[in-house]
């Protein structure tokens, strides 16, 4: 940094300080008795608390009736001797049909049924993969 640049920075700081001290003289004014009295009353008054709001009632979760346990190939809709590729394709297709995200705008009963079907598909797919080794 050159001498000229340093001089410009220092003179800018001095002029800025002078500007603030001249044009903002009441920034640190002394508090009057009225100000002290108002502050004392404000600080000594008990806070006004609103009554606690009651949370909205939560609807009871709707569980679909338990379905009878079915074999994995019936759940996935494939033959009992289907290969891994057929099982995976059937699983993905069924998962798209019963995905909870796709039925988010439907009734609570249909969303609960979609969650149940999705869980049933996951379990059937895991059993199928274990059976196929």
From TrEMBL:
Region of interest (Disordered), ranges: 30-66
Ranges of compositional bias, category Pro residues: 48-66
Residues that span the membrane, as ranges: 6-24
Source superkingdom: Bacteria
InterPro entries recorded: DnaJ_domain (IPR001623), J_dom_sf (IPR036869)
Sequence ranges of Basic and acidic residues compositional bias: 30-40
Keyword Transmembrane helix attributed: yes
Keyword field: Chaperone, Membrane, Transmembrane, Transmembrane helix
Annotated protein name in UniProt: J domain-containing protein
């Amino acid at each position: 940094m050159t001498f000229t640049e340093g001089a410009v920075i220092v003179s800018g700081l001095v002029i800025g300080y002078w500007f603030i001290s001249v044009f903002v003289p009441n920034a640190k004014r002394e508090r009057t008795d009225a100000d002290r009295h108002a502050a004392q009353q404000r600080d000594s008054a008990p806070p006004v608390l609103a009554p606690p709001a009651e949370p909205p009632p939560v609807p009871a979760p709707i569980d679909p009736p338990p379905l009878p346990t079915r074999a994995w190939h019936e759940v996935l809709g494939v033959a009992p001797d289907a290969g891994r590729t057929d099982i995976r394709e059937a699983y993905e297709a069924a998962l798209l049909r019963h995905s909870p995200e796709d039925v988010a705008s439907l009734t609570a009963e249909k969303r609960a049924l979609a969650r149940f079907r999705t869980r049933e598909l996951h379990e059937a797919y895991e059993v199928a993969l274990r059976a196929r080794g």
